[in-house]
Structures are given as structure tokens and as C-alpha cells.
Amino acid sequence: MATQPTTLHLDISNAYFRMDSEEVRKTRDAHWYARTNWGIAVLRYEDSSALLKSPLLTQGSAKWPAQHGVVEGHFDEWWQKTLLVLEGGEHNRIRRLVNPAFSPRRIAPLHAKFQDLADGLVDEWIEDGRTEFASRFAAPYATRILCVLLGIDENDWKKIHELASTIGLGLGITIQENIARIDQAIVELTAYAESLVRSRRESPKGDILSTLVDARDEDAGKLSDKELINLIILLIFAGIDTTRNQLALSVEAFSKQPDQWEKLASDPERYSAAAVEEALRVNPIGRWISREAAETFQYKERTIEKGTTLHLFTMTSATDPAAFDDPDRIDLDAERSPHFAFGGGLHHCLGHFVARADIGVALSTLATRLTDLRVGEDAEWLPDSGNTGAVVLPITFTSRS
Amino acid sequence: MKITVDEVKCQSHGLCAISAPDHFELDADGKLAYQETFDEEHLDAIEDAIDSCPLQAIIMDRDAP
């Protein structure tokens, strides 16, 4: 066998590992990939772009629980059948049924509701000059939007939010120490999803959930009851935790660049879409996208053995100086290449149009109402992983009035 | 009716090939190939493909011959 090139090692299992560190920058300058605790990390834009959509790679997250000693239980059983890790015909059949429900056409009528929610939440604390952003904006905003999308009673949002956050721990590096709680959350959310399906069967409401129930009932066998429940849990979990965390990360990114925050405030209609893309580029919640080699193949000078996990480092590739001018800065007027915060290929994020729309409304609303935005030094962050974000995010600001 | 794909926007994610596999396909290199014309019976699948494209790069011309 040919000798593999010597490359640096990144300890991504360390809770203090940071993707925006000098260590990662230097590693990216040195080589297109690094070794990690689980497979290799792809660091540069050109290589991430090529490998993300490569037909030689499958989605690589199926092994995540096992890599952390979790090989059975409610979370693992759910995870191994989620759309996120399914492949081939099974994946395509379910994806074909659910894709159209999340199209821009279906999302556009909800903008006014997003706006009402954002304004209502800001009203609650704007007079104080400070707030705890994670619990006073990000969590209720993301969760109540999910409730609207699925037609869930908004009064249930706190319980739903708690369950979704707990399941989110399953994607973090602390999965094993939390697995008992995570399993219990799956049990509770399963019961909740079953009750939702029962209620939609009895009285359809014209929401996304009713559409999914119809896809099951009108064409028996296409989406089984089990698949439907699995999917609802995925939508609840993935729809809340991602948006909630990305809102906090976006606010943090903009707090470091008041000039761009002011630019957004001056013309939100013009800049809101760019604000979302730039925040996702420089500070994404999914710090890496996982893939697995379906067969052994040669990529550049490296032989990638079948079964190798590849972590495509999203933040690292999207701030690669070879692909972006002044890459770490948000620039709302710059023409940027696409980032990979929503993954790519057949597993491209299902809910990205919803996320882009609701984060855009949130950032525009915040920018037009708050200035002198600062993040407190006592902010608490989850470790970098496939799902990072703020646990606590105290902010101070001046109200624009 | 006819469809075209804006090849500057297209990132070859392949979701169109899930929705309408008779008309969209990723080749061995992962690049998108597609047919411009389609029969009325495939309209639903084509519309699903248009809806599903992450870049919204598929354009339908309803008046094209």
C-alpha cells in the first residue's frame, strides 16, 4: 500500500476545541485535510465542494452514536431510521414525499406570522436595555414557528422546546453522559407525535402535518406509521434546535461588526437575505457535515478507504482565504460563493427555506430596533460539533426609537 | 412547456432527480443532466422538482412549444 501523507491531527473530541482557532487556520494553510478522532477533517473550500456532492460518499452520521459508545436504546433506534442517515431508495421515497411541503411557495404566506412573533418578543424586553437572548428570543421564536408550521398548539412550546433541546444533545460530543435523558425525550416526543397524527386524522387542518398524514393515508404503504412518527420527531428536533442556535450565533457574529449591523438596519429589505447567508457562513451551528466513503477511492494524493468518516468543516471551508476575500468578515455587499452550512447533495437540509426566511425576519427586526449591540462576557456556549450554539447569551443594546 | 436549469445557479445537489427521476439525473461525476421537454402526465413531478431545488435554479416556460 502506498504511504499516506503525514498530516496534522485535530482533537475535535475536546470540549475546548474551536473551529475558529489559530490551530485550525494553520492546519488549513498546511494541508487540505487533517486527521481527527473519528476519520479525517476536510478543511478547504475547493475540496469540501467536490467531496460534499461526491457520489462516492454517503451520509456519514449513522455511526455517530456508536462512535460514542451508544449502540442501542430509543435515541439510537430513532436515529438509525431518520431521513438524515437513510440512504438509497428508502431515503429518496420519503424525501420525495416531504420536499414540496417545505418549498418557498409554502413558506411565503408565513412571513407575516414570523414578523408578528419577532416584534412581540422584542417588545417584551426592549425597554430594559438588556436581555438573555437565548431564552427570551431565540428559543420561543424558533419553537413557536415550528408550532405554527406543524399546526401544534403554541401553548405547548415550552415542553416541545425542552424535548427538542435534550434530543439535540445527541448530536453533541457529550452524547454518552446524557443518553438516559435523551432516550427519555424520544419516548415523550414519540407519544406526542402519535397524538398529533391521531388528531390530524380526525380533523385535518391544512398545515404541513396534515399534508404528511395525507401522504400516508392516501397512498398506503408509501410512508408507514413508523416512518411518519420518526419524521415528525426529526422535524420537531431539527426545526427548533437549529434555528434557535443559529439565531444566537448570528447575533454574536453581528455584535462584532456594528458597521454591518447598521447597514442591515438601514435597508433590511435589501440586506436581510445577505445577512442570513453571511451569518451562516462565518458562524454556522453545524461546524461539520459528515460523510462516509461508500467505496475505496483516490482523492488527490490520498487513498480514502471504504468506511472512512470525512468531516467537512463548514466554518473552516466557508472562511477559506483561497475562496473568499477578507473571509472572516461579514460583508453584506460582497458577492460570495455558496457556503455549506445546510450541507449538500441529496441530504441538503430539508428546512433551509424556512430557516432562511425566519432568521432573515429575526435579524432584520433586531437590527431595525436595537443598536450598540453587545454580547456579555458571561455567555455560555456548547462545544463545537455538528450542533453548537449558545446556552446563555446575555446581550445589552440601545433601543432605536 | 419546457424547463431550463440556470447552470450558474445550479450546484448539482440532485434533489430534482429525486422528485422527477425520468427528467433529471446526476451523471457519474455528480453533474446534473436533464431533459428540456416533458409530457403533461409528468407535470406534478416536474413542479415538485422546481419546488425542491435548493437554489431555485429550475425555470419552467409554460408557453414554449
What does this protein look like?
The complex is a heterodimer of chains A (401) and B (65). Chain A has helices at 22-30, 45-52, 64-67, 74-79, 88-98, 104-107, 111-125, 133-150, 157-168, 175-202, 208-217, 225-255, 258-266, 268-282, 314-317, 352-369, and strands at residues 9-10, 33-36, 40-42, 57-59, 130-132, 288-293, 297-299, 302-304, 309-313, 370-375, 380-381, 390-392, 394-399. Chain A is of the alpha+beta class. In chain A, helix 10 (175-202) packs across helix 11 (208-217). Chain B is of the alpha+beta class. Chain B has a two-stranded antiparallel ribbon. Chain B is globular. Classes of the chains: A alpha+beta (401), B alpha+beta (65).
Tell me the span between the first and last alpha carbons of chain B.
6 Å
Helix and strand composition category of chain A: alpha+beta
- Quick one: which chains have the greatest interface? A-B, 19 and 17 residues
Low-confidence stretches of chain A: none
- The arrangement of helices and strands of chain B along the chain is EHEEHE
| Average pLDDT level of chain B | 92
What portion of the residues of chain B fall into strands of 2 or more residues? 15-25%
Helical percent range of chain A?
Answer: 40-55%
The helix-and-strand class of chain B reads alpha+beta
Rg of chain B over CA atoms, rounded to whole Å, is 11 Å
